[in-house]
Specification:
Largest sheet: 7 strands, mixed
Distance between the termini: 49 Å
Length: about 325
């Protein structure tokens, strides 16, 4: 029997939301047909997601706007006129209804974030199905990467002019320059107010060192920190020690673990500073909460590994 997701077919009003009583079975193939590649990313459009989750598109977008701080530009973006017309030209116009506005596209991370915004058993069921579908498509691309490489090579020979090739070479050079810049080799440093990108790039380079476990000790962990921890390598476990008054909920933890297992949340009131422990062998002291990196001046330092066990014993 094929794997299925449930989505509402007809809407009824319940408060400000348009919910449903009538449930229709939706096969994974139907979800795949709603996934598009825009700006080099797999995305789903707001009106398709609204239908799956049981909202009118307008109400769905209102829910997102009410939690807009959770949806960075790499989670959700509005299509340009050209992008929208290109999509419409590739599909039957009848399937797009009377949509005249430029829809919003949600990336895989944005769809994961919807799981923390839309409540109820139906929302959890739909989110799990979407996560699994994206995961299956990602595995397909990875397992058939040679095909996509060959197609990409053909496209380059057919469509790229000499000017475009020079531009691509320039961007590759810039990429390697950035990789060199943020390679982890500094044992200590200071970042100043406004250096938000630089600070987060450094933090993500720290995470890249971990192959088994990340332990974060930070009293002020929120969803923005989980977004950064999602950049960890696959299979790396995360343990967080934070204040009992944290804004994180069990639903946030479950949503994270549905896509980036495994995260464990512990509470402590015994620490003031922030620490990052990687594979139980590397210890960083970080002068700012991870949700505030670059907002004010702060420093970081690599500490001696023998301090790790003492620190963990005193949490």
């Amino acid at each position: 029997m094929p794997a299925v997701a449930l989505y509402p077919k007809q809407f009824i009003t319940k408060g400000d939301l348009q919910m449903t009583n009538d449930i229709t079975i939706l096969e994974k193939n139907s979800i795949r047909s709603k996934i598009h590649v825009i700006r080099g990313q797999q995305v789903m459009l707001d009106f398709d997601l609204a239908e799956i989750y049981g909202y009118e598109t307008k109400r769905f977008n209102e829910q997102v706007k009410n939690n807009i701080e959770r949806f960075d530009d790499d989670f959700r973006f509005q299509l340009t006129d050209k992008e929208y017309e290109n999509l419409r030209s590739n599909f039957s116009t009848s399937s797009w209804g009377g949509t005249r506005y430029k829809p919003y596209a949600f990336t895989e991370q944005g769809i994961y974030m919807l799981m923390t915004v839309l409540k109820g058993d139906l929302a959890v069921t739909q989110s799990k199905m979407l996560v699994r579908t994206f995961k299956e498509m990602k595995h397909f691309i990875q397992n058939n990467s040679h095909i996509f490489v060959e197609l990409d090579n053909i496209k380059k020979h057919l469509f790229e002019s000499d000017m475009h090739q020079k531009e691509a070479d320039k961007k590759i050079k810039e990429l390697f320059t950035l990789m060199d810049k943020y390679n982890v080799k500094d044992e200590q440093g200071i970042y100043f107010q406004g250096q938000i990108f630089d600070a987060y790039a450094k933090f993500e380079s720290f995470l890249a060192q971990a192959s088994k476990e990340i332990i974060l000790i930070d009293n002020y962990v929120d969803l923005s920190v989980l977004n950064r921890l999602a950049k960890k390598k696959k299979g790396v476990n995360v343990i967080i020690y934070t204040d009992p008054k944290t804004k994180l909920t069990q639903q946030d933890i479950q949503a994270f673990n549905a896509q980036y297992p495994t995260l464990t949340l512990n509470y402590t009131t015994k620490t003031h500073d922030r620490f990052l422990i990687l594979d139980n062998t590397i210890l960083y002291h970080i002068g700012a909460s991870l949700k505030d990196l670059g907002k004010k001046n702060f420093g970081f330092a690599l500490l001696e590994p023998f301090l790790i066990q003492d620190l963990l014993r005193h949490l």
